[in-house]
Amino acid sequence: xxxxxxxxxxxxxxxxxxxxxxxxxxxxxxxxxxxxxxxxxxxxxxxxxxxxxxxxxxxxxxxxxxxxxxxxxxxxxxxxxxxxxxxxxxxxxxxxxxxxxxxxxxxxxxxxxxxxxxxxxxxxxxxxxxxxxxxxxxxxxxxxxxxxxxxxxxxxxxxxxxxxxxxxxxxxxxxxxxxxxxxxxxxxxxxxxxxxxxxxxxxxxxxxxxxxxxxxxxxxxxxxxxxxxxxxxxxxxxxxxxxxxxxxxxxxxxxxxxxxxxxxxxxxxxxxxxxxxxxxxxxxxxxxxxxxxxxxxxxxxxxxxxxxxxxxxxxxxxxxxxxxxxxxxxxxxxxxxxxxxxxxxxx
Length: 347
What we know:
single chain; alpha+beta; 4-stranded antiparallel β-sheet
């Protein structure tokens, strides 16, 4: 995430300067990026449990009442910390509907360090009753009951269920939708994988704008770099330092693809040619930087190698966890290339 944030910040700076100087919009493309994130509800406290009673569906009408005349509310009990001190409440009455929408929330209290919580979660749960409100001289009548099991909250911070309403053990045909949320699961973290559409600026077409200072190295005026594009009035290049071994590996991979196209009589795709030219320029530019840049450039080069070593290590671990074995192998191989380059640098 830190590397992605740095890249986004650099690209935003480039685009701002390009817009200010009237340069054309650079070429770009979209990629699918997959992230593993920890699911949490930060607005809740550690000891909060929020119960949402959403709606009921197809409630059974009691004798003498039509479905359109049902006046329903929901009452519930959570037997925690114990049966005598059970947490109870009820919704408002929704009139004239057999599929009422309640949309009400109730904040319940839990103590994660209390021994009785595990028992309440695993065996008690939350009991619900959907009730038809009685009128003058008429008592309330229960339309159906249900119990929500809470074991899933040990490994998840949100539980959403459509509960079947029962009359004793007999299904009534009605259902009740409820949601329970915690700040975080009771026993472990909940990881979620999400895929986003990610805009990527093509390096070859980036306008000659200066990138942010922390990630760029100044070129000495006496011996400017020969290849990279520079901003007017500035000697800083667009490229960032990279691993020679990884650049060479990627360049050879592109050359193998180009050779396969030639052997099959196919026309070389423009994108493949552009990528090969770009990576060749990057290698030539980086050689010039390390040859003429002095200790400052070499220090930044070493720091970049260490960053890429960590980046590829984390990428290999993440991709392996996601089951993307080939991509994980590729990241691990590049990590080893960077390590060998670091060893050579220190010799």
